[in-house]
Every structure is written in C-alpha cells, then in structure tokens.
Automatic annotation (TrEMBL):
InterPro entries: ASHA1/2-like_C, START-like_dom_sf. It comes from Streptomyces flaveus. Belongs to the AHA1 family. It holds the Pfam family AHSA1. Residues 12-152 form the Activator of Hsp90 ATPase homologue 1/2-like C-terminal domain. CDD domains: SRPBCC_CalC_Aha1-like_2 (cd08895). This is Activator of Hsp90 ATPase homologue 1/2-like C-terminal domain-containing protein.
Length: 155
C-alpha cells in the first residue's frame, strides 16, 4: 500500500483555532464526517499514544455500502504525533472483514499560517486499496469544508 491521497484548503482562522478543532471531541464529531455521513465518537483520548474510535453512518447507504456494516464505517484512530499548532498525525484502521480495507492508513494534518488564515493540507499515505481514490479525496475535501465552516463560525 503505497498510495497517497491529499486535499488542502485555506481556512479563515488562525492555526491555533484550527488545531484546537482537530483535538476536541465535540468538534471532531461535528466536522469530520464528510457530506452524506454523520459521526459518533465512541472513545476519546487526545494525547500522543491516545486516539479515538468513531462510527461514521451513511445517511443513505443504498449507494454507499459501509466498510464495517451496510451503513457504517468504524475507524480506530491513534494520535501518532501532535505538534501544536502545526501538525497532527493520525494512524487509522478500519474495522472491516474485507481485506481490501485492511492496514493502517496515516493521515497527516499540516497547518501553515497563510495571511489571516491557515492552509490545512491533509495527506493520507498507505491508503487501503478498497478505498476509491477519487471518493476518498472528495471526502477529505468535504471534511475540510466542514472544518472551515465550523471554525470560521466560531471566531
């Protein structure tokens, strides 16, 4: 698994505000699920070596079957590295019987000051082959748009 997916967006909020939204349980639950999904954090430990477990449910599973069940993706995410307010590195493992979703995907959230805002670049490495690249990059972009709406409304 050597595929890399990425997306980026400039968010009209300072890096510290964006970083805070990456490490707050209620924030993650609000903005991380991409369009067409809702999320529920089942476990939360925001420290290096800690992590979270999230259940993502498709609002309409008829054309988007889940990895864990017909309508759900469950992912265990570990925090591998936290560098405030510049970087969050996560290791994500999907709960799935299908071996095409097996393995550990690394998600690096890089935050860089950009004028009055923050350029957020998400790089996913070792993406399991069962995850469609175009759909994954669209999902990351959707989460970034949600993050922007979430933190820009908070200022």
């Amino acid at each position: 698994m050597d595929r890399t997916d990425r997306a980026s967006r400039v968010i009209a909020a300072p890096p510290a505000t964006v970083y805070g939204a990456l490490l707050d349980r209620d924030s993650i639950e609000a903005w991380l699920p991409p369009d067409g999904m809702r999320g529920r954090v089942e476990r939360w430990d925001p420290r290096p070596g800690g992590g979270f477990r999230m259940a993502l449910t498709y609002l309409d599973a008829s054309d988007s079957p889940g990895k864990t069940s017909d309508a759900t993706d469950v992912v265990d995410v570990g925090f591998a590295d936290l560098v405030p307010p510049e970087r969050v590195v996560q290791r994500a493992v999907f709960e799935a019987d299908d071996p095409s979703y097996a393995g550990t995907m690394t998600m690096t959230w890089h935050l860089a000051a950009n004028g009055d805002g923050t350029e957020v670049t998400v790089t996913a490495t070792d993406v399991p082959p069962g995850i469609d690249q175009a759909a994954h990059e669209a999902g990351i972009a959707s989460s970034l748009a949600n993050l922007a709406s979430y933190v820009e409304g908070a200022d």
